[in-house]
């Protein structure tokens, strides 16, 4: 039965073409509820067709990014703009984020807290608590070179939406008695806008909001690991750490457990 459904869905997608929006309208599902389109997507324009032009399929490129195998890249490959756009705007990005957060919540619920109120969980901001997708959708989903000025202006508007899955984790941790700490690579001149945006999207009651000093030149791993060390020195126990970049998670102390959210739009070294 599942094979028949798979064949029917594949023929429906082929008849819709490899480049049109109709290719993403297939609604058939497997018995376990997983949309068939996710099984077929790498065979179509967003993976196979575009990928063949660049010798590496865009889904394989994204895998290399997420595993921190591919590093120090400045923009996504031009051939992958459509792929990344479909990934971010479709259900796949949300589904991947949900898988990460489900595991994070299961882990948090398994913890035996000290009762001293000193357990904290570290959250990044961009593409972790808040989504800059409204900005990147206008700038090629990362295919355009990063522009400090235009992105800075966007941040100051303080209108970035929350990532729903991260907000779910945030609220669950608070209910469990684990205090959130917000640690971002944004500079101090963005503090007011960042605090305003977080509050408007439901991120309230956090223990600390830590931003990078305005004029200090320091790599992200050094800055964030240094701030986590300060937390531990102050008596906090970092039970969890979540971010979209590997630089959010690497460098001692990392926290008892780290969780990597997907982000194929940009790389921070």
Automatic annotation (TrEMBL):
Residues 1-23 form the signal peptide. The keyword Membrane does not apply. Pfam families: Acid_phosphat_B. The keyword NADP does not apply. It comes from the Eukaryota. Coiled coil: none annotated. Keywords: Signal. InterPro entries: Acid_phosphat_B-like, Acid_phosphatase_pln, HAD-like_sf, HAD_sf. NCBIfam families: plant-AP (TIGR01675). This is Stem 28 kDa glycoprotein. It comes from Urochloa decumbens.
